[in-house]
Amino acid sequence: MKKYTGYLLVGLVSSMTTMGGFYLMNENGSNPFITNASNQKNGDFEFVDYKGNYGYDAPNFVQASNKAVHTVVSIKNYSNQRQQQQQQFFDPFDFFFGQPEQQQRGRQQQPDQDQPSGMGSGVIISQDGYIVTNNHVIQGASKIEVTLNNQKSYIAELVGTDPSTDIALLKISEKGLPFTKFVDSDAINVGDWVLAVGNPFGLTSTVTAGIVSAKGRSINILGKNSESPIESFIQTDAAINPGNSGGALVNANGDLIGINTAISSPTGAYSGYGFAVPANLVKKVVEDIKSYGIVQRGYLGIKGFDLSNEDAVKQYNKQFKKNIKTDNGVMVTELVAKGSAIDSGIEEGDIITAVDGKPITSFSSLSFIVGSKRPGDNVALTVRRGNSEKTYNITLKDAKGSTKVRSKSDLTPTEVLGAEFEPLTERQKDSFGINYGVMVKHLDNSGKLAAAGVQEEFIILSINDKNVSSQDDIEKILKNYKGRVSIKFADYYGRIYTKGFTMD
């Protein structure tokens, strides 16, 4: 699992013993696990049934474990990253002799080869080889290797990703594979037993046990990879460590209730708090990727805060001279132009209390419900304005303001790259000593460029060895292009990099 600062997933292996301690005494005050020493002969050993007389049998996870381990795979992420080491920002020979890849003059370059850059887990969800994992497990990969529980390895195809939920879908060429079934993750309860299955620290087919500690958790971790993160995690104390990311969280029957994604830990290893993407959301993401090539997501087009957040309420009251009280719901503080909410009559200062009759307790729960729907879907939004309450029927739009469902083939090259560009000014060209290039004006963290390590204000110099001077140049080079893309760019300090990714 690639390192996620401060987060991972956790377990209950040791706590089962602790729990047993609360029930050691039977009705007459004796311990059913301890034989009276006065009745035991020296040198004899006695065995007792671990089922104590305390009202129920200890849980048995053998069947669920055997079922789950065969559906969980190990994933290796190989990246092909090449940095051109040079002292100046740009080599003037490029003007006369072409790209540095073609003319290696005064240049030292690392070999162009795949290097292992991360490991994680994945879950087989169909007999014909579809595998779910985390986006951060395979992000930036030039090659993805999948190893089954039987140690057979495959090179996987990346079918699609969704950074907003940190879910990715892979495919291997195989039939008749064991697979896990999705169950309704909304039906699980806090206190239900769960198993976490994965490959922590490279230890294959590891199973740990715990319970559902909480539902609907937001830990503000996915914003690093997405502008519109959806966080409504299942929290568990089942032990999860580096390498577990993308693995399965299953119920006591061995069926999938979530994809293990993150932990909260001061050390980067198990400390009791783990988080999984709910199976219902995973299922929707997978269906969208398989049907459309991209995830279809509805947006309300609002910004706001949890009304239960006392500090946020105090700040809001101070700034706007209001006297709002803490409560359940979401306070709308900003409306996006041409968004679903503003077009339906929602106003700043409104308090959203329910969606489709389901009470809203936080912005994360609101995002989860709305983000699980597609553009064109309708939702009933219950809103409190002043002393009155009203229900608005809203048709959801996508992030571009359209109610139409779009497929991957409808995206422009710059949408796939996830960026907007602007030409360099003459002053910038003179300063950098170049006569071409475009600057990254805006970057969507879910796009190809962000995954390749590009940041805003970096300068794109060439794509597939062709110089670029405008956004139109990029569109022309990549229009209808499929295959491996090589991009050369410069960072803030003038260091030039060449990295690759696949357009499909």
UniProtKB/TrEMBL annotation:
InterPro entries (UniProt xref): Chloro_Bact_Ser_Proteases, PDZ, PDZ_sf, Pept_S1C_Do, Peptidase_S1_PA, Peptidase_S1C
Residues that, per the record, bind substrate: H136, D166, G243, N244, S245, L300, G301, I302, K303, G304
Residue span(s) of domain PDZ: 304-387
Biological process, per Gene Ontology: proteolysis
Gene Ontology molecular function terms on file: serine-type endopeptidase activity
Keywords associated with the record: Hydrolase, Membrane, Protease, Repeat, Serine protease, Signal, Transmembrane, Transmembrane helix
Root EC class: hydrolase
E.C. number(s) listed in UniProt: 3.4.21.107
Disordered, as annotated region: 101-120
Residues annotated as transmembrane: 7-25
Active-site residue list: H136 (charge relay system), D166 (charge relay system), S245 (charge relay system)
Keyword Nucleotide-binding (UniProt): no
Chain intervals with Low complexity compositional bias: 101-115
PROSITE patterns with a match to the protein in the record: PDZ
NCBIfam families, A to Z: degP_htrA_DO
Name of this protein: Do family serine endopeptidase
Organism field: Empedobacter falsenii
Organism ancestry: Bacteria, Pseudomonadati, Bacteroidota, Flavobacteriia, Flavobacteriales
